[in-house]
Amino acid sequence: MKYVDEFRDPEKAKILINEIEALAETLHSRWQRPIRIMEVCGGHTHSIFRYGIENLLPESIELIHGPGCPVCVLPMGRVDDCVQIAERPEVIFTTFGDAMRVPGSKKSLLEAKANGADVRMVYSPMDALSLARKNPDREVVFFGLGFETTMPSTALTILQAEAEGITNFSLFCNHITIIPTVKAVLDSPDMQLDGFLGPGHVSMVIGNDPYAFIATHYHKPVVVAGFEPLDILQSLWMVLKQLESDEAKIENQYSRIVPEGGNDVALQAIGKVFRLREFFEWRGLGSIDHSGVQLTDAYLAYDAETKFNVKSIAVADPKSCQCGEVLKGVIKPWDCKVFGKACTPETPMGALMVSSEGACAAYYQYGDLKKLNVRLEVEEEVAVA
Amino acid sequence: MCLGIPGKIVHIVDHELQLGMVDVGGIQREVNLSCVAEDDQKLESYLDEWVLVHVGFAMSVIDEDEAQATLGVLNELGEMQEELTAMREGAS
Amino acid sequence: MSEAHATAADTGTPESTRVRHGKLVSQVITLAHGGGGKAMRDLIDDVFISAFDNPALNTLEDQARFQLSDLARLGDRLALTTDSYVIDPVFFPGGDIGKLSICGTVNDLAVGGATPLYLTCGMIIEEGMPVETLRKIVASMASTARQAGVQIVTGDTKVVERGSCDKIFINTAGVGVIKQDYQLGAHLAQPGDVILVNGFLGDHGAAILNARGDMNLSSPVESDCAPLQGLIQAVLTAAPGTRFIRDATRGGIASVLNEIAQSSKVAIEIEESRTPLRKEVKGFCEILGLDPLYLANEGKIVVVVPEAEQDAALSAMRAHEFGEEATSIGQVLTGGVAGRVHMQTGFGGKRIVDMLVGEQLPRIC
Q1: Percentage of chain A exceeding pLDDT 70
Q2: Domain of B9?
Q3: N or C, which end of chain C is more exposed by having fewer CB within 10 Å?
Q4: Distance CA A206, CA A208 (A)
Q5: Can you spell out the DSSP letters for C232-254?
Q6: Which domains does chain C have, with CATH numbers?
Q7: Average pLDDT in the A57-66 region?
Q8: Phi and psi based region of residue B55 (left: phi greater than 0; alpha: psi -120 to 50; beta: remaining)
Q9: Who among B34, B62, B71 is closest to A156 (CB)?
Q10: A98 vs C362: CB contact, 8 Å cut-off?
Q11: Cα angle value A151/A152/A158 (rounded, 5°)
Q12: Which CATH superfamily is domain A5-67+191-199+210-252 in?
């Protein structure tokens, strides 16, 4: 496939690995500690595991898998709200597939469906709107989630519903914004990061300027990265080059997709339909100011929270979960007390075990072979217990 | 986060709704083009363009020159490494 | 009602004297067709018996009867299996529930080294199904059974109220005979053995997911649903040292490989670049964020053979219509972590291939 296969070329990977090894050696001998780079986006985490990239990197490079999986960070209380809406008899509740398994405090959407709720998987919010068109006697609710990448599609769908005068369509909005979250990670006192891979698909919407503060205020390099394995290696190499020459700037590795200024049509649609929430709750990270959006007053008629009078009740994360520390790179997934024991992909407790993009689930399922023994030890402990 | 995949616009489905058919490796899907279509351009002018598709929306027109430039950097890097190796071997 | 097809009109009379002229008049299946009376007899005569037509079934006894001596000539062990088929949609590109219900059970027998011989057919039908639809399903079962060289010798039909089942559920059990020489088992893989597959992976899973239509994709991929007893016998003849064969149905090849690794207490390595995938299945997986290793197949087997017999097994497979794209995808390692499967990625990295947790859902974010 064009624009895919050429960015999965193992020969070119070797070239990059050579460069990365040389730079990592220099930095490691200079710092006498591992080089810690965070990929903010869950899509990157997924690619890193799917292509076995960690196994190609020198041990002195530690990848910290960041908070950018919107499915993972969905707090339990919001899932409970989804279930509550979905269980109304007049409602067809539409969602992306990967959100169906996220556990609420009582059940997931998959379980609500098993209990009779009309929950349907869709590929696009436009498909949800089509369902509303075809079922005028039902209330179709779309479970909007995702970062800035996904926001425009939801916004444009709301605008389309308005244009057609469709009134039996609404949005349960859980869209979140990446910048305040990265800032929260950077501000955390135990933060130990040297640089970032920036989220390529978010950037194609918002452009590269919003990351400038990471370079100017925090003096950390950011390279906006694509999602194919060569993109990730090349971006790591670019981060290392900045570190080696003691620079901190925003670079764009994914220039074939990401225009410097982002996408105007998309940004306008977002600006028209959404406004920032004062705060939004993240599973594993707690409440972060201005990190979520909701519909503006002009579009309240499309707000499922208003329409169905949802009384969001926050549900605390299980105390034993250490997702926050894993997200910030303070501990590794297998250092968490419940990893592989009480918390597995079958019975996830914490955010990071919920979706395959979560660092814990990725380690548990795809594993880094070097670290596999740790998991086996954990399993043995469980077996003995 | 944000699974996106390159696909080629193979025909225009609906001008008013700005829908086009996009092909990804032989699989086709109707995709909303409003984020990539410029107001003054006819939708037909986007035929055969490659776009990045996310949840049924084309979010960016893929820039072939930039893609080649990105790969070009790697080719140059490879050539440099080869030269270096050749020099080392020549020296020893 | 637990009667076999035979019992609806079971009077103990030999076939020659029983008058079989039941003609189904109604256009749709109703509860009456499962009620044990004339409607049911007509359904059985006109739809099932006429399609499945064979001596064992035609006697219309409560059970099919076989001569042990006939079976003993074919081998020294009986193989018995059962599987229930529920699929949405009932008709899909490349097959239908009828074809599936024969292939699945035939393949489950064949992968154990058995020659499949006889199948049963239990049906649960939702009232309201058009008789024509049922005829199509039954005709598909009959023609697939002929292709697979098996006979459907006894059966049972139930009709349930609307909403109590999704159109039609089929159960088929099967009996086959295993030849003296064949010893196959998931626990028999040894270091150095090679892992073969008989062609493109994931076609069935991709075809079904697409046929449901939720994702609004248009795809040319058809299910690979096929009876594999011929292919399997060819492999076993060409490579008598074959350790293990399994059809890679739900859970895909990843699940089969994990089972082998765990049962044989060995490590297995496969190579992504040698894993045969259609371009369209790749595209489908890219769009929906799925992993083709976990997609279901209905006409694909994983074969473990000693390295010395690899070429013979592959030639035998490639000579067969259902094995033209057969290839080796990996091997059983000497050493490594017992019970683990990993993949050498096309990109040069390595990753674990674990069992699937739950159903694979399209990953969009």
Answers
A1: 95
A2: 1-61
A3: N
A4: 7
A5: HHHHHHH-TT--EEEE--TTHHH
A6: 5-178 (3.30.1330.10), 186-352 (3.90.650.10)
A7: 92
A8: left
A9: B34
A10: yes
A11: 95
A12: HypD, alpha/beta domain 1 (3.40.50.11750)
**Strand, coil or helix: what is C144?**
helix
Does residue B84 sit in the same domain as residue B71? yes
Buried b (16+ CB within 10 A) or exposed e, B27-57: bbbbbbbbbbbeeeeebeebeebbbbbbbbb
Read off the pLDDT of residues C78-103 as tens digits, 9 standing for 90 and up.
999 999 999 999 999 999 999 999 99
Mutate to test the interface with A, among C281, C341, C351, C355 (most CBs of A within 10 A): C351
**Residue that is written with structure tokens 């799917």 in the block:** A50
How many domains are contained in chain B? 2
Thinking of the domain A76-178+262-307, which architecture would CATH place it in? Answer: 3-Layer(aba) Sandwich (3.40)
Domains of chain A: which residue ranges? 5-67+191-199+210-252, 76-178+262-307, 323-384
Q: What is the pLDDT of residue C6?
A: 35
Mean pLDDT of B9-38: 95
pLDDT tens across A134-146, in order?
999 999 999 999 9
| A128 pLDDT higher than 60 | yes
Give yes or no on whether A5-67+191-199+210-252 and A76-178+262-307 have one common fold. Answer: yes
pLDDT of residue A73: 86
> Tell me: the pLDDT tens digits for A87-114?
999 999 999 998 998 888 899 999 999 9
- For residue A163, pLDDT over 90 is answered with yes
Interface mutation vs chain A, best among C269, C270, C294, C352, most A CBs within 10 Å: C352
Q: Which residues of C touch B8 (CB under 8 A)?
A: none
